[in-house]
Amino acid sequence: MDTNLIEAYYKLRQEIDAASVKLEKHHKNQIACKKGCSLCCESLRLFPLELAAIRQELGEYIQQLPKKRFRLNPKACRFLVNNVCTIYASRPIICRTQGLPLLYENKQGTGFEFSTCRLNFNEVAIESFNQDNALFMSPFNSRLFLLNQQFVKQINKKKTDSFSRFKLNSLG
Ligand code: SF4
Fold first, then answer.
1. Could you give the CA distance from residue 40 to residue 100 in angstroms, rounded to a whole number?
2. Is the pTM of this model over 0.85?
């Protein structure tokens, strides 16, 4: 496994964290996210590169996950316990940006699409968001996709391609 790709992933994660921290401070009065809220911890998927990076950081913990365990919500992430993320420092990129004001280039490339948690920014007009007060995700997502593409080529698994993703509710 090419550790350079995993290191490049960690660097990307750091950049996103740095941008996220600034936005969290800027919007602190409009963001309801807090420990114990797990509204966004279901139906998420992650790339093989991200899983490899988490495994590198938390190898034994991942291996010890029980194959099956009773869960009230089968869509909930395997790392969620009592509504708290048990791998918080190593959580995937998608988990690091949930709840922030996010902008994505639209399919036509003519403008932006906006996304955030339904609990946040209820008193703010969507039109007020731009690249200065929201996180423009498209360049980060492109970099993640390209890193993962290289990683998938290297691991060369028959059923895994650049678009394969693992469901966070069924890991283990
Ligand atoms: S990794 Fe953590 S933050 Fe991400 S979905 Fe799972 S429990 Fe939630």
1. 12
2. yes
* Cβ–Cβ < 8 Å for 87, 79: yes
Q: What spacing in Å lies between the alpha carbon of 20 and ligand 1's midpoint?
A: 16
What is the number of other CB atoms lying within 10 angstroms of the CB of residue 46?
A: 22
pLDDT tens per residue, range 13-39: 999 999 999 999 999 999 999 999 999
How many angstroms separate the CA atoms of 79 and 77, rounded?
Answer: 5
- The Cα-based distances of 19 to 41, 101, 171 in angstroms read 21, 12, 29
Q: HSE-up of 84 (CA within 13 Å, CB side)?
A: 4
Mean pLDDT of 70-90: 88
Can you give the C-alpha Rg of the chain in angstroms?
17
The residue extents of the domains of the chain are 3-158
Q: Whose C-alpha lies nearest to ligand 1, atom 2?
A: 85
